[in-house]
Amino acid sequence: MSFIASEPEEAITKAEITQQAPAPAPGNPASPSQAESPARPRNAFTELMKPKPKSSPDSKHSHPSTASKLTRVFKDRDGLGAYLANPKAFPSSRVIYHNADFVAIHDLYPKASVHTLLLPRSPKHNRLHPFEAFEDPDFLAAVKAETDRLRHLVAKELKRRFGSGSRKEIEREEALAAAGEDADQSKLPPGRDWLAEVRTGVHLHPSMSHLHVHVFSRDMRSPCMKHRKHYNSFNTPFLVEMEDFPLSDDDPRRHGYQGYLDRNLVCWRCGKNFTNKFKALKEHLEEEFEKWKAE
Ligand code: AMP
Predict the structure, then answer these.
(1) pLDDT tens digits for 173-195?
(2) pTM
């Protein structure tokens, strides 16, 4: 059964498929090389999960020679398979957790402050297009439940990183301090709903061959966000949200590529249309990021 009838387009670049990580932006914690740095302080993810061995196979894959590039482009569409085969081989800065059925990882080229991938291990499903894999209701239910678990972890991580600057969190902390230890929790301001800031979904035309669900913060702020197609792959129907599954038989997304990646660039937060001006959108996203954090 074919799920994509028309000419597909991809959300990631050849360099990403061949694992040539972009140069990190100075001081940006979302950059892949800093995420791998042993000097990086352990965060909520790493504290929540058991430590893993320190050796990282990632380093073996950097900068393939030009001669081998084409072969690598093809081969490395299987790059996510390494996490399924041996999650223990990766550091906790890459593999967040793993169990018999799933491996959760940090995306190597994050397109948001926190960008993770959930990889189902089921051999029966994990090489299928997501639309096909999710036709199996039991499998879909299991993936949705695990996606929700990872979503909660991402929300916790957002609170850890940005909570101290959030107006709603500050209001709650102040009310708590004023009311004292015996405060009636139900009367306190609720604080920020960080779960609402986390999105989950699959790409209409995935580039990597192993089934994966994106679980990420909505900010779209990352040095790895470098192209219109990067942005649009998460901000148009090219991202099929997990809550949309099971898809109805007549869902238009079943019928192929609809030019989603070439659409005008529209700010996820304020709706301003940047047409094809990616640089202007990037600058705007920095401003929106500051406002979003402070909500
Ligand atoms: P897509 O196939 O379009 O759903 O996206 C694949 C995702 O995998 C992208 O967000 C890439 O940044 C990410 N990615 C590609 N190679 C790796 C890798 N070796 N480790 C972790 N993430 C990767």
Answers:
(1) 999 899 887 888 888 999 999 99
(2) 0.82
